[in-house]
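Format notes (please read before filing issues)

Several people have asked whether sequences and structure tokens are stored in separate files. They are not. Every record keeps both together, in the order shown below: the sequence lines, then the token lines. Line labels are part of the format and must not be stripped during preprocessing.
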Amino acid sequence: MIPDAPWLLERERRCRREGSGLTTADLVGCWRLERIWNKGSREPASVAAVLLRGLAARLRLSADGAGPEAGDLRLANSVRLGVLELRFEGVGRLEGRRPLLVFSFERLLLLLGGRVLIERTLPQPDPLRRPFFALIAAERSGWLAARGRGGGLALWLHEGDEGQK
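Then the structure lines:
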């Protein structure tokens, strides 16, 4: 079952009170963006979602064994048009009871057929302005829902394990 907006909004209200119970292990994998809702909307943003699905928008999360604390994650957020891929890579961590997936991107890559054309180091954001996803719920090997810093709601479908490229 892929949840709709009313179900997600109710789950989000409960999550604010009780937390989601999500752990790093629940997040590891490759997630394909399926739907987005603008802040305050109960209807999916169909044009934006179609565009992002057409660009194969993906969020890849993997455990970061080199991190100083358990729960550190590596992130890769990407879009692809044919063999051309734009990818942001960085680190994240779960914080708080809800929890929030707080992250920052360290580098930007432009790839053609898997070959790096451009690679740029990105400046670190102000610690108080770091992006985050307020995690709402997930069904392992199914879907993941979260609200971003800007207030939009996103739903991703699970595509596979962290080793997939």
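For reference, the curators noted about this record: The longest helix spans residues 5-18. The chain has a mean pLDDT of 88.
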